[in-house]
Amino acid sequence: MSKLNQHEIIPLPTDIGALANRINMSTRKEHDVVNKSVSLKFAVALRDGKIYRQGIQGFYHVFKTVEMLIQQELQSDSKSKIGGILSKFWDERVARTEPLTKDLLYFYNNDPKKFQHPIRKEQIEFVDHIIETYKEKPHILLAYCHVMYLALFAGGKIMNSKLAKATGLFPQVDGQTTEQVSKYGTNLYQFNIEDDQILRASYKRDYELATRHELTEQEKLDIIEESKEIYRRNADMIRGIEKHNREKITNKLSYKVVVYGYYIGILISTFALIFFVRRLINHLF
Ligand code: HEM
């Protein structure tokens, strides 16, 4: 596909009826909260692979769950309404389970057991929430198809360019730049096509054309509500990681205080004993 011409861009930013624009307009506040929170933590994660991998692990479980449900819809014999809509716009090239698996294998030294199942409370609750809400309202999958995937072409681009310079995250390899080495662990942001922006534009266009007339107003409202929930739960996952790391540091500190306290206690008792024995000897002789 060559570059899209201006008149081929659907939806136009001024099209206030387009579902994608309605989602973006209604979630500005929630996006700003998560944007600030991710940006702050990301600055730390750029220097510490253990924090970076905790972050992408959360996204992995969300993408994996959503993509499992998308496949379920697409492959069912009697295609549901949502399956029909998905078949008009879903593009396998945007799927992220496989690229994220590669990244996590890179950051967890090829050990899939370390990330296969969600362990943090917020990640487990997020996955359960997707499955449960989907059972009642399968159309909420379309909220994920917009929010989680278009994030990759906007914020994701910015994050990828910072990762390409993150010397603290990737090893120095002779004859290769950090940008080249970073490719092994940043598949999340790679689409292996010449121009990501063309994929983004065609995905957005097909999403709009497929959803414009097929969904009821109530379904669109449910999707907008779910989009807010996605931002809130992403923010919760980030807070969960932060809390976990804070507790780890505190536990380490209290462990040190207990251990050092123990040795200092022994030292003080020994000095006190020596002092006491000397005074006793002086007193006796
Ligand atoms: C979990 C985190 C995030 C999610 C789910 C998310 C999601 C989104 C979505 C759905 C859009 C609209 C895209 C479109 O309609 O084409 C967007 C736009 C954008 N996001 Fe994020 N985002 C996240 C974090 C971030 C972060 C950390 C940054 C900054 C580093 C960022 C920067 C942007 C920018 C610059 C835009 C484009 C705004 C515009 O064109 O008006 N986002 N994001």
Automatic annotation (TrEMBL):
Query: Which InterPro entries does the annotation name?
Result: Haem_Oase (IPR002051), Haem_Oase-like (IPR016053), Haem_Oase-like_multi-hlx (IPR016084)
Q: What Pfam families does this protein's entry cite?
A: Heme_oxygenase
Task: Provide the E.C. number(s) assigned to this enzyme.
Answer: 1.14.99.3
Instruction: Name the Gene Ontology biological process terms.
Output: heme oxidation
Q: Name one GO molecular function term.
A: metal ion binding
Q: Which residues cross the membrane?
A: 260-281
Which keywords annotate this record? Heme, Iron, Membrane, Metal-binding, Oxidoreductase, Transmembrane, Transmembrane helix
Residues given in the record as heme b binding sites: 31
Q: Which domain of life is it from?
A: Eukaryota
Q: What is this protein called?
A: Heme oxygenase 1
